[in-house]
Amino acid sequence: MTVDVQYYVLLSMAVFCIGLFGVLTRRNALLFLMSVELMLNAANINLIAFAFYHGNLTGQLFALFTMALAAAEVAVGLGIILVLYRNFHDVDVTVPTTMRW
Amino acid sequence: MTTGPKLRLGKTLVPGLLAVGLFGVMALITLNTAFEPMTQAAGAGFPDDVSITAELGYALFGFDSLQEIGGTEPFLAAVLLVAIALDAALDASLVLAKREEEGEPVAALSSTGEASSSETGPEPAVTDGGADGGTAETGGGNR
Known about the structure:
The complex is a heterodimer of chains A (101) and B (143). Chain A is mainly α and 101 residues long. Chain A has helices at 5-25, 29-54, 58-88. Chain A starts with a helix and ends in a 13-residue tail after the last helix. Chain B is mainly alpha-helical and 143 residues long. Chain B has a domain at 46-106. Chain B is built from 3 helices and 2 strands, in the order H-H-H-E-E. In chain B, a hairpin with a 2-residue loop joins strand 1 (99-101) and strand 2 (104-106). The longest helix of chain B has 22 residues, at 76-97. The interface between A and B is large, with 49 and 54 residues.
């Protein structure tokens, strides 16, 4: 017996909304990065659940590629946070304001 | 100065209500959608005698003739593109990690060159960026 697909969708929505909550409320750049990762991984849950639902492996492969892109994003994101800390001595995302319109 | 994560409560959590509301709406939609049950009869799941990992590998590298589960596209071009993307990300992180000392760029992966070992010898590694606790001569002196 397997779990029905709507529970996977609910789980993925919960994870996505936790990530969105973090993005909307946090000011620490590291927590920002973690929240974006949560939102990305919510998409992965959906991809894998629906790959099983349709009996097709394409979704699982897509999830693999999403993970690779998430790794690339974290590499660049951590580099940006490093520069942020070096220039502002803080990782608060509200401190650098020069690139705001 | 500590910039570790601090839990901030109070008024800053108000925009988070948007996320909670979004979850409510999306959950309502999901629970009112009629999904097929996850059974073999409805087309869900994979055959028991097939190795999923092997099938994923065949699909990644485009070995169509070895596939046993039908309907999986070859992903060889995507694998190559992701390899390039990861390589670019590695380069980007190295560029971002580069710092300048007295106008001279110092690469993150270089050992201590002549620029930094002129009189005081190699700098000690500072894991906190040199802002906290490090003395002025070693940590934050020439940043």
